[in-house]
């Protein structure tokens, strides 16, 4: 993320893989995941606190593991820490799109696999909405990733393929200058990275920056 923000002064948006019920997830209790990393390194947490009534309280009250397709857009959030926790010399700014994926683990625990199609249908809705909001807000560079593939246990293969399908939608043609997938994979078999490698056709090219054949803009794996 830090490197991407230094490539000129572009409008950059980061997708926050959010808890549906707690702003910043569990970062105040030492939890370690993508949202918590963003919350610890930036001014995102106070931005999310302003959305308690519209985003978090409804999710807490519903108790549904599907959550909603709502997206929070937080413009120009200051990021002031590096990955190691040390302070940056100068803050960098990126807008943040906050969205909660379906908690697929809970859905499957309650219903088995019969809801798998519904899970991906709902995830695709919020992935498309995040892209639409980014386009509407004039964001030029997007930092996406393995949305909901951690504690929510969504399928990396399905999420990676769905991102490629969404980005190939004609409505996004010419809207973004670059899309980056920042994938941190702690699995022993590297199945998350392999899913994105496959989806992005990285096995078919030696280029570090593959151009997806259908999107019309660079889709980058970092």
Automatic annotation (TrEMBL):
InterPro entries: CHP02452 (IPR012664), Macro_dom-like (IPR043472), PARG_cat_microbial (IPR019261). This is Microbial-type PARG catalytic domain-containing protein. It comes from the Eukaryota. Pfam families: PARG_cat_microb. Residues 7-81 form the Microbial-type PARG catalytic domain. PANTHER family: DUF2263 DOMAIN-CONTAINING PROTEIN, MICROBIAL-TYPE PARG CATALYTIC DOMAIN-CONTAINING PROTEIN. Gene3D superfamilies: Leucine Aminopeptidase, subunit E, domain 1 (3.40.220.10). It comes from Lotharella oceanica.
């Amino acid at each position: 993320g830090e490197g991407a923000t230094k490539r000129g002064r572009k409008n950059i948006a980061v997708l926050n893989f959010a808890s549906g019920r707690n702003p910043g997830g569990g970062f105040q209790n030492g939890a370690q995941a993508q949202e918590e990393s963003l919350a610890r390194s930036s001014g995102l947490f106070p931005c999310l606190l302003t959305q308690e009534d519209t985003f978090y309280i409804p999710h807490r009250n519903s108790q549904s593991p599907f959550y909603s397709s709502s997206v929070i857009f937080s413009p120009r959030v200051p990021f002031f820490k590096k990955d190691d926790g040390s302070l940056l010399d100068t803050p960098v700014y990126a807008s943040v799109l906050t969205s909660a994926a379906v908690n697929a683990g809970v859905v499957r625990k309650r219903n088995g696999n019969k809801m798998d199609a519904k899970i991906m249908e709902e995830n695709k809705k919020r992935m498309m909405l995040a892209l639409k909001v980014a386009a509407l807000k004039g964001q030029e560079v997007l930092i996406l990733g393995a949305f909901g593939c951690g504690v929510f246990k969504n399928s990396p293969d399905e999420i990676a393929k769905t991102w490629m399908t969404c980005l190939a939608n004609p409505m996004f043609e010419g809207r973004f200058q670059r899309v980056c997938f920042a994938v941190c994979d702690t699995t022993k078999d590297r199945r998350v990275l392999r899913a994105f490698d496959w989806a992005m056709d990285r096995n078919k090219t030696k280029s570090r920056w593959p151009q997806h054949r259908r999107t019309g803009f660079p889709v980058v794996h970092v």
